[in-house]
Amino acid sequence: MSKRNGSSKPQKKPVIRKGNFRPFKKCTQEEKQRRMDLIADWLNERPILDGKLKKRIRQEFDLDFRQAAFYIASVKEKLLERLGRTKDEWRIESLSFYEKVIRAADATYADKTRARERVDKLLGLDMPSQMEVKHSGGVVHTDSVDIASLNLPIETRKLLLEAVREKYNPDADTERSQSPA
């Protein structure tokens, strides 16, 4: 007889799925909705990197990173549904806005540069946002640094951009010098 509920049925052994370290426990729909609402509130408070958000979800709800990624994706999908547009529609609108800024006669050089950086990011032309450092023990991921957030002088930013272009596309400089201007 089971001590817990007085029945004679033996208690089930908790199931630990392959690749997991603790038993699987499914939450209720109400709990899932409460979690998603809280995550949406966190996203609305201020911009937050997915890695930091996953860490916060893991600490708050005692979930693993895969579950946290699922919650983040679900919340972002719901936000897009609520706004009534797809990601592609938002991307197109953003691109047209930044193109207007670049073409505006009264825009400063800093505004145009920032708009160009945003266009590059939207199109996936910018530098990788995460860097890897390899060593004998494996791969270590370092935190990414957003150069634009450092508020460097424009001359320094130009030098950094040239250095990055030179490193990732060394023959582009020779192509520019050979092309007629």
Structural write-up:
Helices cover 56% and strands 6% of the residues. By secondary structure, it is mainly alpha-helical. The chain has 2 domains: 29-83; 87-168, no CATH class. It has a two-stranded antiparallel sheet. A hairpin with a 2-residue loop joins strand 1 (131-135) and strand 2. Helix 1 (29-45) crosses helix 3 (65-83). The protein starts with 28 loop residues before the first helix and ends with a helix.
Instruction: Label the overall shape.
Output: elongated
Order of helices and strands: HHHHHEEHH
Number of helices: 7
**Main β sheet profile:** 2 strands, antiparallel
Layout of strands and helices, then pairs:
Blueprint: H1 29-45, H2 50-61, H3 65-83, H4 87-103, H5 109-123, E1 131-135, E2 138-142, H6 154-168, H7 172-178
Antiparallel strand pairs: 1-2
Could you provide a short overview of the structure?
The chain is mostly helical and 181 residues long. Helix content is 56%, strand content 6%. β1 and β2 form a beta hairpin.
Question: What are the key terms here?
Answer:
single chain, 181 residues, mainly alpha, 2 domains, two-stranded antiparallel sheet, 7 helices, 2 strands, elongated
